[in-house]
Amino acid sequence: MNVTSQELHDKLKTFFGWDAFKGNQEDIIKHLIEGGDAFVLMPTGGGKSLCYQLPALCLPGTAIVISPLIALMKNQVDAIRGFIQNKEGIAHFLNSSLNKTQIAEVKADLLSGVTKLLYVAPESLTKEENIQLLKQLHISFYAIDEAHCISEWGHDFRPEYRRIREIIAQIGKAPIIALTATATPKVQSDIQKNLGMLDARVFKSSFNRENLYYEIRDKSNPKREIIRFIKDNPGKSGIIYCLSRKKVEEIAQLLNVNGIKALPYHAGMDAATRAHNQDAFLMEEVDVIVATIAFGMGIDKPDVRFVIHYDIPKSLEGYYQETGRAGRDGQEGQCIAFYSYKDILRLEKFMQGKPISEQEIGKQLLMETVSYAESNQCRRKILLNYFGEDYPEANCGMCDNCLYPKKQFNGQEEMCTVIELILSLKEAFKADHLANILAGENNSIIKSYNHHRHELFGIGRDRGVRFWSAVIRQGLILHLLDKDIERYGLIFVTPEGRAFYEKPYELLLTEDREFVDGEDDDDDEMPIGAGKHSVNAGGGGDQQLLAMLKDVRKDLSRKMNLPAWVIFSDPSLEDMSIQYPVTVAELKNCQGVGEGKARKYGQPFVDLIAKYVEENDVIRPDDFVVKSVVNRSANKVYIIQSIDRKLPFEDIARTKDMDFEELLTEIESIVGAGTRLNIDYYIRQTIDDDKANDIYDYFRDEADSDSVINALKELGGDYTEEEVRLVRIKFLSEVGN
Ligand code: ADP
Ligand code: ZN
User: Domains in the chain, ordered, with CATH?
Assistant: First the structure.
């Protein structure tokens, strides 16, 4: 059938009330109406649905729309019925949620020819009785929504999707339109091959979402940073994604306790609660929804202002899809993801039960996420490159790496080395293998190829695997290298790369970022020491203020003749540089501070902060206190009372159902917060006097931090960790409090 542009615009206006097409909608619609196959790659919010809805209304017969999600279908059908008044039968869906009467109604409408659009779930499509029914219809075309579900290399593989082609052949041939919001070149080729539509016209919109800001943060104190972020962005709508249901519940609760209106959403909740929570978010009764990735498919809330990934997603496609839900109206959309390599290891572990081939794919997708997170390159550039698109600007101005650029180096020689290696290995290896060779990693795979004898093996040992991975990744972005999508992503050298190799020129590259492996985020209340906490390097706090606070601490420690760390620990100072407490009362809310210490040492600190806040016009996060969900104070009171009564620690632990280590940690946190405890009775019973004195002297005279590990090292072999911790408690209690 032929249509003019005028006719299409008229239909658009009559049916949908819009005056203009978005992006390349018109070309796509025209192509489909004229009987061509179409493959549509369009980012979320681009307006994919219209590409099949309008043609369905124009063409004779019924269009079959295959869509993976039942909930999504109902929304879509409601939406189309909303546009076209008084014609209920114009759109229907067929899935497992319908009862017999409803099914009969759908059938009647289909057979009488009033239905222009029929949404079908893939598992319903494969049912014999449905095939028989559809065979009797005149099909205008097939639309395959979320077409990436066909590919194992997509982020949402669904095996039933692979049978679509054979079912279509049974029902009857008609043009096909496949649509997806995310497809890497590999996924795209899978889709086209699987649907037998290699000749389809491909309509690819740019995947660049100019209004989205991308940032990756160290996951050292994610809860605190999230609460702070939300408090700094009051009244804005946002989604927080977590990987597990448990985390979803926990974070939602944590936000509530901290005065933020938030609700959880995950597949383990009953349908009614889920629907309720989703509506509450859409209707803006709550600001934040904390969800697993089950949330968001087909949700059209245009003004989501931020998407936070509490856990790093399993693939870049998933990440892109989820971040895509921010700023659909073209306005502000901040996308922040927390990253720690520990999470990656955890994800790998989850995969272990799966079939090997699936694990392989999963790992490779995960590694792409790692490179993205650790890279110092423009995030937009990497993302778009991943979807086979170039981003020409040098600096996007809208990602953390562009706003805070890292030093670059001339990587001319390094790139030549990489290319030399690839060519010498006949372009038959993947990126990680190449990086391993150059870094001299002598693993079993390398050995199996005898590559530990290769002349370039270990040539860049001093730079490490990460460095070489970064060089290769940038080679890909610069088109000197490319991935062979048909052959498992083997790296080959492009003509451009060969030209560079023949006649090298200066090439500016960046090294990857180093991430601090964060404290396991599950304890907000950091005990003093156990010697293991790493300070969030260059993270959330105000670095200038932090430096000034450290000076104050140094002064005070000289004046009082106390080790600096006894006054306030580093995490405490850092927290002050985040929270800006200006009174002693506020100071108590900082990590590891507590009543006693605040009163004893706090004044000069809060004076400094008050002055700093005043001079620099700092906007303080109002009433910013991270309250922890678990109420531990009952335990604390019990412990303090029991120690007053000189009860053996073992008994206290038993009564409170803790192990000894947990009890020590709890006591450390009590003392660290400034409460004085006299545990001499217990030390006398359990530690030899001389030893106890040695440990005590060490902390008083030598130690420059509260680290137990350092103490054990310095003191030599005769002391146990428990002994050191006990004496440290005594010491801190006596001199600090
Ligand atoms: P996608 O499925 O690609 O994420 P949708 O089909 O949900 O996108 O469309 C995104 C939004 O754009 C929807 O709110 C839709 O109503 C709107 N939209 C689509 N096409 C047009 C158009 N031509 N003019 C105005 N709004 C449109
Ligand atoms: Zn950028």
Answer: 5-204 (3.40.50.300), 212-403 (3.40.50.300), 412-506 (1.10.10.10), 530-615 (1.10.150.80), 634-736 (1.10.10.1390)
